[in-house]
């Protein structure tokens, strides 16, 4: 499984986010990504790491859901 590094990522729809850390769910031990939106109010969110690593298809092109940009 690919490591999820802290830093900036671009969502496939174009918005940017900052990964703050990778945490574990207290009941299931599932890896969760804790991240902050780098636009608007800068809300903090959590998403399963499995979903973070997924690829998506858009306009006939397969790409990562989130791409590391530094």
The sequence of SSEs as H and E is EEEEHEEE
Question: Strand sequence of the main sheet, in spatial order?
Answer: 4-3-2-1-7
Number of individual domains: 1
Radius of gyration: 12 Å
Spans of at least 5 consecutive residues with low confidence:
none
Structural class category: mainly beta
End-to-end Cα distance, whole Å, is: 19 Å
Helix residue percentage: under 10%
Number of strands: 7
Q: What is the level 1 CATH name?
A: Mainly Beta
Q: DSSP helix count?
A: 1
Oligomer: single chain
- Kindly state the mean pLDDT as a whole number? 96
SSE inventory with pairings:
Layout: E1 7-11, E2 16-24, E3 31-37, E4 44-48, H1 49-52, E5 55-58, E6 61-64, E7 66-68
Summary of the model, kept short:
This protein is mainly β and 70 residues long.
Question: What would you say this structure looks like, in words?
Answer:
- The structure is a single chain.
- This protein has 70 residues and is mainly beta.
- The protein is built from one helix and seven strands, in the order E-E-E-E-H-E-E-E.
- It has a five-stranded antiparallel beta sheet with strand order 4-3-2-1-7. Strands 5-6 form a two-stranded antiparallel sheet.
- The longest helix is centred in the last third of the chain and has 4 residues.
List keywords for this structure.
6% helix, globular, SH3 type barrels, 7 strands, 1 helix, single chain, five-stranded antiparallel β-sheet, 70 residues, two-stranded antiparallel sheet, mainly beta, 53% strand
